[in-house]
Automatic annotation (TrEMBL):
Pfam families: Lig_chan (PF00060), Lig_chan-Glu_bd (PF10613). It comes from the Eukaryota. Keywords: Cell membrane, Glycoprotein, Ion channel, Ion transport, Ligand-gated ion channel, Membrane, Receptor, Transmembrane, Transmembrane helix, Transport. Gene3D superfamilies: 1.10.287.70, Periplasmic binding protein-like II. It comes from Homarus americanus. This is Glutamate receptor ionotropic, delta-1-like 9. Residues 1-66 form the Ionotropic glutamate receptor L-glutamate and glycine-binding domain. GO terms for cellular component: plasma membrane.
Amino acid sequence: YILRQPLDKKWGTPADDGNWTGIVGDLQHQKADFSLDVTLSESRSTVMDYSRVYQNDPYVILSPKPSSLPRHLSLTRPFEGEVWMSFLVCTSFMGLILWLLQKAWSWASGELGVSLVPTVFHTWGIMLLAPIPTLPTNSTGRVLIGWWLLVCVIVTTGYRSSLIAHLSVQGKYPPINSFQDLLDRDGWSWGSYEFAGTNFLYFN
C-alpha cells in the first residue's frame, strides 16, 4: 500500500459544483481506497462511508478571566434598563392621572384647581421619599396617592437592598462558556487560527 497526503493537502470542504477537496475529494473520485483521521459530518457522509469508530474533534475556547464591572454603575445596576424605563413612564403617567382627577374634582366642586407641573413633581417626590406637601381633597385622589405610596415603598425597599448587595460584593463580567456567550458579548473582538476541515464547515 501507499500512504500519502491528499494532493491539495486539505481535509475536505465542498465546492460549488458538488465536488469535494482534500481527503474527501480523493475518496469521492476514487483516488484513494480509504483514509484515516477524518471527522464525521452529515455532509461528508453523503459522498463517503465511515467506519464505526471515527475521529473526535474537540474545540476549546480561551478567554480572559472575568473582570470587574465598573463601580460607577453600581447605582443603576440593581434594576435592568427596562425596569428603569417603566419607572420613568409610570411616575410621569401617575402625575398626569392625579392632575386630571384633581382637575375634574375642581370643576365639579368649584374648588381651586391645581397645576400640572407641581402635581408631577409631587409624584416624583413620593418616589424619592419626600413628604407630601398637600393631600388631595377628594377621596379618589387620596386613594390613588395611597396606592402610589405603597408602590413606592416596595420599589425603594427592593432598590436599597439590591444596592447594598451590589456595593458589598464587586460584580464581574460573566465568563465565556459557549460560542453563544461569545457572540452575545458587546464590544468584544475575537478570532481563531485558520479554519480547516470540519471547523471550517461548522463556522460557515
